[in-house]
Amino acid sequence: MSSSPVIELIREKLDIVDVVRDYVPALKKAGKNYTAPCPFHNEKTPSFNVSPDKQFFYCFGCSEGGDVFTFLMKIEGITFPEAARKLAAKAGVEYGDERSHAMTEDDKERLELKKMLKHAAAFYHSSLFSPAGEKARLYLGERRLSKTTVERFELGWAPAGGSALMDELKEKGWSRDLAVKAGLVTEREGGRVGDTFRGRIMFPILNQAGDTVAFGGRVLDPEAKPKYLNSPETVLFSKRRTLYGLHEALPQIRKTGKLLLLEGYMDVIGAHQHGVDWAVAPLGTNLTVEHAGLIRRYAKDTVVMFDDDRAGIQASVRAAEIFMEAGLYVRLASLANGQDPDEYLNDHGREEFEKKLVEAADPLDFRMNLFFKGRKTPPTSQEKAQAIAVLLETVAKQPDEILKSEWVKSLSTRFGVEEASVLKQLRKAPLPAPAEGKRGAALAVKAIPALERGFVQLLLREPALIEQAAALEPEDFTSPLARRLFDALRALPAAERAKAPTALAAEFPEDAALVMELAVTDLGGEITGAQNAAAAIKRLKRLSLERRLKELKAAGPMDPQQLKEYSRLMSELKSSVKEL
Hints:
With 580 residues, this protein is of the alpha+beta class.
């Protein structure tokens, strides 16, 4: 990780706990550290730890870890200079031009891609107000979007010609290859390239930080396919990890803890225009576990409202199950009149729309309501059995045992069957797939003998104790990993020992997760504090002497040199025993 006087000053002025809490409001004190559900992967039990002493974070579930700069880069998908600039502003430190700080080639490329995408958004927006964008403006007017809303979301128009944007980018000095990497230009047959988006209304897609990372485009011609087209996956953009409108909605979501998940671009824009400014949408109706993890960072109360057609209802149910499996509570809402949310808001206003949100049902009630909707006669016994079997698949995916019990009662009451029968049938329902196990770092930690593990951990927490370990050599450790870490700790210059965990993580990237885990975990066992360091050193040395003596004995008859070594080792061993 880059370092300079400015970077060190930022580190000194900021507390990683304060920075992380801005993105993970659920962060809570737990002993010396702070814990929360991990913002980087889905989990039900908090395994994300932040150490105020060491000023870094680590997740025991996915092995992500690092300092405050790493956290911001990971959470916002930005480069080190961008993270440094943001943190400098928060710390009240003058950062200066990012060109004056070390940047990797990847960092430079990401910055150029962002500049290119920002320019493309401006180009499309300008095209919307050109003569060629007249039909697009009329369409947006028909959808009752105000000019203020169009400006706020920087909606645009991609000219119908095949190379308008490409020509513009070339004129500004950007290469064709970079435009392809940004997803703005697509390679076609025969080596030709052309604009990815042509003849479409353009929706810039922003990340949480407000950078344009991709686009969505909608055709005006009802015969053209596909109706909506998104940018391809790039180093800046992943459809599975992006929610449209999140940047615009974040202030209100953070303030209230509420999030409304709608189906598409126009729904989100229409909701914001009417003051429902906590609305976002996946890029398509398919919610992913990554989306659920992203939502969990910010919202405690999530309502899903997709279209009322068959596809929208099925997508709502799938989304609810993904939320449940991620350990989140969610409710499902429906307008029940065939209108899209933006149409409903235009016709009925915000107050009536919010009444629909208040009426949102939990996933089981939502599905039961669908089953009974429009029925004029009670269901037959066979229909009940078939419906309950399907609904129990939702119940089985609910991790909250109290809620699961309440759902069984609801099913029993609603269908008029014995609760015991529903419970018996629940045991036959398919169980959800087990969660992914923890990665190799935890296994590697456990593979180190407890005494060696505890001593290395103690040195990572209190690196000044390395001065007491002059009598130890790397060969005194049986674990190759402990040996390597001890040797690296011993070699650290005194001025760098205070940052031992981050220094070792940078030196051994393949073991970075393990180093972070050792530094934040209270492993217990042999070492419980600095006062035990001297005793631990003596015991490590004694065990090392015993191992070497056994090796000499096992080797058979000893030559004079080996006998001399054996005698010396025995003398050292006797001395060490007396000292214990």
